[in-house]
Structure of Fluoride-specific ion channel FluC:
Amino acid sequence: MLASLYVTLGGGLGSLLRYQTGRVLTWSFGPQTMTAFPWATLTVNVVGSLIMGGLMGFLARHDSGGEVWRLLIGAGLLGGFTTFSSFSLELMMLIERGQPALALTYAAVSLFAGLTALYIGMIVMRVAA
């Protein structure tokens, strides 16, 4: 139960940070620039992946309290900030394990299945409307 609380707290903060990142970037660069390309999403995905890499590197070297930090920051905060950071971590783990073909398959299937599922969801909602 405590693990779920850590993930929930981190996830709420991560979602808020994602929202505020979009607002700050829109305020800084203007709505026209921000809608021409998904800069906010790209920003949180790259920043989230950087933080996830740092967190995993830190936890690999320091074991004390690692599970709490993994849940609070990794699954929670970064999960709310961006799910791409988890995808990046899992993909890199496959590469580091010497499984490049599986990593490529995972990346391709994730992209194709995600886009396909999104498209199906859009079609279902358009038909239902």
Notes: The chain has a mean pLDDT of 92. The radius of gyration is 17 Å. The chain is about 90% helix and 0% strand. Residues 100-128 form the longest helix (29 residues).
